[in-house]
Input
Amino acid sequence: SLNLRENLKSLYSKFSPMQENLNAATQESAEVLSNYLVFLQSLMRKPEFRQKLNNYNSNFYLQFELWIREAQQRGEIKNELDSMLLARHLAAVMKGIGTLYAFGDSNELPSVTFSKIIDQFFDLIEIKQYV
Output
């Protein structure tokens, strides 16, 4: 029953504690982040892991695309926007905020940053009559 903006914020709030815990661990020791990155790098060399990650990302994008198309049908956001490209854009923002936060780019919680970015983003894509 949520509109797209609120749906995205709600989803991101579920990921935020994981990012905050990772950041807390990396602040205690840069070695934790380094080990995590080495671990990810070694996993990426395994074709079966890459395939699972690709499947996960594809499903993630498809879910976002579905929400975007529904929002377009409800008149929330502009119809001329490419729904899959927009889905990938939103996913990149979500992942990017977490990555930047883990590297100490911001003292602000990821959920707060995401909320601000989403609000600004929707100023660009929303149909003004809907607001």
Q: What stands out?
A: Helices lie at 4-28, 30-44, 47-74, 83-102, 110-125. The mean pLDDT is 81.
